[in-house]
Amino acid sequence: MHCGRFRRFGELGVGIKQLANRLSSRRIHGRLSSAHNSSLAHPKSLRPRVIFNSIRSVCCSRVVFAVDYSRDPDGPKLPDLQDFPPELIRNFCIVAHVDHGKSTLADRILEITGTIKPGSHDNQVLDRLEVERERGITVKAQTASLFYELDGKTYLLNLIDTPGHVDFNYEVARSLAACQGVVLLVDANQGVQAQTLATFYSAFEADKTIIPALNKIDLKHANPDAVAAQMKKALDIEPSEVLRISAKLGTGVPDLLRAIVHRIPPPVGNVNKPFRGLVFDSWFDKRRGVVTLVAVVDGQLKKEDKISFVSSDKVYEVKDIGLMRPDKVSAEKLYAGQVGYIMCGMKTTKEAQIGDTVSHKSSPVPPILPIRPAKQMVFAGVYPEDQSQNESLRGSLDKLMLNDSSVSVTMEQSAALGQGWRLGFLGLLHMEVFLQRLEYEHGATCIATIPSVPYRAKFKFEKQIKEFRTEVLTVVNPQSIPEASVVSEFSEPWVMGTILTPSEYMGEILAICMERRAQQKNATFLDNTRVLMQFHMPLSEVIVDFFDILKSKTSGYASFDYEDAGYRPCTLVKVSKSGSCQTDKHRR
């Protein structure tokens, strides 16, 4: 715990002892998240740990604390999961553009299914990070298991709330791997946005059942008929298939739940086959080690089983298993088709690679899916404000990366800033969120350099190929760019950018894009007022201020999304400290 945050709280005249007294007398509310009643009503054996962590939650600048019921024998109980064969299971995720209401819809679904009590929690129950609540966006996919009764049957629904920003497409992709269908949410006021298209095509290409839904129909300026027509034009979705809901008020959400049961197919699995599961998420619990989320494809798993992971062949003993409701609740077994957590004593999340396959040690199985590691698109140097803080910052980075394995790190040295690290991120927002979490959750401040993109250098001569052990070198630090005389070609990353905007801003957007070396691919009118434009452009022209300028020029109405479009040849100029530069006139 960072002492500076205790001092700031102490200035209010409230001490730790007083906080404990307030908690035990229930005068502090809204800090604890549980699957049922407030944890203060739970047995006394649980109170000291809850009180301590609640104090830490209050003092550490509003970090949201979730009660861990997996260690409490008197905590919430699960029904016998053997009573839920695959035909009574539905695994789905909610996908949408930023601020279209995914987390609010997740709240209503949790309330309607009785997983949480209405009004007993803050809004956005599944957004547990402080940075998520402060920014009002989801940056980490979260899972919750729900029990839902329909037509005399009880179904087990596994919900995944996904991020909506382009930087976190990796989270969406791995969530899709663990489900059979998606709820595609579109704001009835804002209409189809750039990320709406991206998430739709991701689900479509993954062959997932798609349930379209228009949200925020209660807003004064909502126009569901016009937005449904946009969806028909852009996504080829019939208006009759689109559900109309208000996640805030709960209007239409029961119909959506019925559609999830009726439209999304159950998982295909056989409980009698050897156990195999797909790892689709993991995080680090400082008390119990790595928690791994697994979609069980076949077979069954119980505590004390010996398991191994295909990528590493390491063997572990299962310490605990269970469901997320939305906090951990222990179970005796997990069966085919179910989604749950496994704890087996792992020390780092690198041991639980996303996309890996887990099986019993005695019954190895082939991989379910190939492992596709996160692809870093933006790189920046991170240095301590003072070199005396180097070890402290390194420790904070290590702890945070236990919960964000998509960040890459290498050591680097700067003549001006000293020793530091070159970090790779999924995008600019991912970088901002990571650095913000570094400060909020670990009390660490640092100096970050201007972000850059990875370039490639193709060597001319065998000497350099042997020296670097590759013909094409990927360069993430501008200081490491090879001399122009030994390189036959430099190349830079390009992206396919998609912009959705009111048609009156087309001219200004064209001018902005052409200034950044963009090449227009096409433009399609979705209706009389909105146009979809696509461009190829260098990633280096996008990552710094392109989105801010786009929003400014279009009064905030345009939305932007991009995807990797490979590398293209470019001209690079290496500027030395003296101000001279080196280039190759033959390279273009």
Care to describe what's here?
By secondary structure, the protein is an alpha+beta fold. The chain has an 8-stranded antiparallel sheet, with no helix packed on it. Strands 4-5-3-6-7-8 form a 6-stranded mixed sheet, sandwiched between helices. Strands 23, 24, 25, 26, 27 and 28 form a 6-stranded antiparallel sheet that branches. The longest helix has 15 residues, at 428-442. The protein is globular and about 75 Å long. The relative contact order is 0.09. Residues 1-71 and 583-588 have low confidence and may be disordered.
Structural features:
588 residues, alpha+beta, eight-stranded antiparallel β-sheet, six-stranded mixed β-sheet, 30 strands, disordered N terminus, disordered C terminus
Give the overall shape.
globular
Structural class: alpha+beta
Work out the strand percent: 25-35%
Regions with pLDDT < 50 over 5+ consecutive residues? 1-71, 583-588
| Rg, Cα atoms, Å | 25 Å
Mean pLDDT: 81
Beta strands, count: 30
List the helices and strands and how they pair.
Layout: H1 3-10, H2 16-24, E1 32-33, H3 47-59, E2 65-66, E3 89-96, H4 102-112, H5 130-135, E4 142-150, E5 153-161, H6 169-176, E6 181-187, H7 194-205, E7 209-215, H8 224-235, E8 243-244, H9 253-263, E9 276-285, E10 289-298, E11 300-302, E12 306-309, E13 315-317, E14 320-324, E15 328-330, E16 333-335, E17 339-343, E18 357-360, E19 378-384, H10 390-401, E20 408-414, E21 418-425, H11 428-442, E22 446-448, E23 455-459, H12 462-468, E24 472-475, E25 487-502, H13 506-515, E26 519-525, E27 530-538, H14 546-553, E28 559-570, E29 574-575, E30 581-582
Parallel strand pairs: 1-2, 3-5, 3-6, 6-7, 7-8
Antiparallel strand pairs: 4-5, 9-10, 9-18, 10-17, 11-16, 12-13, 12-18, 14-15, 14-17, 19-21, 19-22, 20-21, 23-24, 23-25, 25-27, 25-28, 26-27, 29-30
Helix pairs in contact: 2-3, 10-11
